[in-house]
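Continuing the series of single-chain predictions for the mutant panel. This is the parent chain; the variants come on the following pages.
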Amino acid sequence: MRLRFMLALALFTGLACAKAELRLEHGWNLLNPEVSPDGGTVAFELYNGIWTVPIGGGGEAVQLTAGKQADSGPRWVPGMERTISYSSLREGARGLYYHNLDTGAEQPVPHMQRDFGSYDWLPDGKSLVLAAGRQLLHLDLGSGKTAVVVDSAVGRVSSVDCSPDGRRIVYTTNRRVGYQESLDEMHCVSLDGERSVNLTGHGVEHYSPVWSPEGDKVAFVNYDAGTEDIYLIQFDPETWEFGEPQRLTDDPAEESGPVWISENELLINCNRPGRAALYRADAASGRLTEIPVTSLDFSGPTGYLSLTVTDRASGETVAARVHLATADGRAYYPAHSYPRQNTMGDRSDFFHTTGSFTMELPVGEIALDVVRGFEYEAESRSVIIPAGGTVELEVVLERWVDMGGQGWYSADNHFHANYGGPFLMKPEDVMLMLRAEDLNIGNMVAGNASAGRIYDLEYFSGGMHPLSSDRYLLRWGEEYRSTAYGHMVLMNLEEFIYPQMTGFTLSDYPEDYPPNLDAITAAHKQGGTAHYTHPRSQEPPKWGDYDAFELPVDLALGGLDAMDIACLWSSELLSSKLYYRLLNCGFKMAVSAGTDVFTSRVNPAPGADRVYAHAGSPLDYAAWIEAFRGGRTFVTNGPMMWFTVNGEEPGSSLDLESNGATVTVEVTARSVAPIDSLEIIVNGEAVRKVEAVGDGREVSLSVELPLTESCWIAARALGPGHRLVLDTHLFAHTSPVYVYLDSEPISSAGDAEYFIWWIDEVLKRVDARDRWTADEHKWRIHELFRLARQYYERMAGN
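Parent structure:
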């Protein structure tokens, strides 16, 4: 029951949320802090290991865990002098371990044979509670017996914390409630499982609850305001009465990982400096004070790597991406950079550099790959880091092709600077990534999916960002999101289009209205472009949460400019099949690419998938948009493509007579990673294919194709996964050239039948959701879908 008496009101009267302060420089990403029982030491995660630092004033951090393992989730063990526990992944198996800070002795926690998630110790240090799926378990380490505290929670148990007296557990759950949506709840349960209460109802993202030392308050992370903030709830341990959540921190940064230092102060993570740092938070005012980590004391001998990256042609220092592998397999990065990972490919760790850095590393052999996008040769090095010494290394990168010199410029049409996570990215950080990836255009998107805040809306100006240069352009557009109709990217906007999201239950716009077609129309009216992103991730008749549900309707009624067939989070091959079917129904549409990476998280790099447009030189955004809109494009995660039909480039149309019609198709693909095959696609079928020979770096095909009907012709290159590919496999694809015989349209009755089925299925899903605020809204959606269906019915001959 909710606490109503005046004591709770008095406790929280005057609680002032901490406001943002200036961004400070901070070197490392410090995660999941824990305070020692004496309040003098903080344990935290860094470099996939556990480190400690004095809580009073910070200073040098000391490494506790090392070796070929990944360690996380430090917890101080009650009753064991200066001992922590942590979860450790070793040789593919995960376990829980003790570590004594004084002796360095380590041993496994017994009876931890099962999979587990979050955990916490009971005050006796002889038993613990742990999350296992939808169960909350109590494990006695003496007997090895496990008691079920909660057998079937409303969702997956995501985090747990034991009260100071050991009698109550606070835990959070997460459950899916619909397309792209989940709800979190926070419960308090007695250790015997007999008594339980929901503390927060349900909402978007609240987790990491922790009891105060007196057991009368719970601090937790809550996303209700659109950022991760720390909230407090008053709790009466005798009556189990509790108050309304009260917001403690309030700024654009993300706060997380709260733990109590004392009844009046918390320790939290906050990414105000750009990376997750350690802060003390006043429990009354929310005022934050950083605990600085100024240097690192590794547990073993170390040396230094000093690396400089230069461009062979200019001799200048240039930004680059650096993959660094060490003998212990941990993810090291220089201070003031951001750790990243090739999560879709070989899972290698990397970071971006301005072109020069020095960093401390454990002694031993390290392997380096230095990469600068797709137009430079990657360079690999292997060096030995000596104890107490420095390896000075210069890596010279050479451009093997200058696409800009031929009028082709690259863009990632869909990625986010900020969208939760440990980092707080600024435009300067994004521009460094563009330069390091040699990505000419960053078509950023502002967006969100659940709360009132729209991430990065402050950077949307309706024009180019002032950091743009003659070689690299930065501009914010919009990701328009609908759980019922799909996600779109709107580019070249002068004004932001509202509502930015529809159909999200916990947002301000839960209704499945307006249709995406309205946003497309609004974008086109101001000279913008619209295209669907991550359009297909499941084989029909299955649907993915983020599929482009309304796409066939929009093409039939108003037209789109393009479609992402390359995206890290959807299937290139399935998206291509959908693209082929749409082209077969007579539509013209460019290929596009957008990674959809969140640079505020440990994601792959922007530009891992990118689209090139032939806009002519010099680089000009307006000219690039027109080339993109006109279909003079190809998408790639590695290979460069040159493709013509009768000498005409992608996006062109040819009008021929049907009698003896033949076209000359020429295509070449060149790549830094090996290509398996090169194909010519006509109306969705591979009519010619050539296998690569030798190192697979270059493949060409020149053929005369006889034609018997109007068609579209495109080319694609395929290959295996590779360390230089930040996706699951090598892929490149051109937009088509359209060939019309005797002015007949391109048409396919079979594909039209497919989209009749598609429209009917999507409309069934929308009706089943029944998210309408007005009958006329439902009627309009039905009418739009009916009109689009008629287009396909006519083509199918129905």
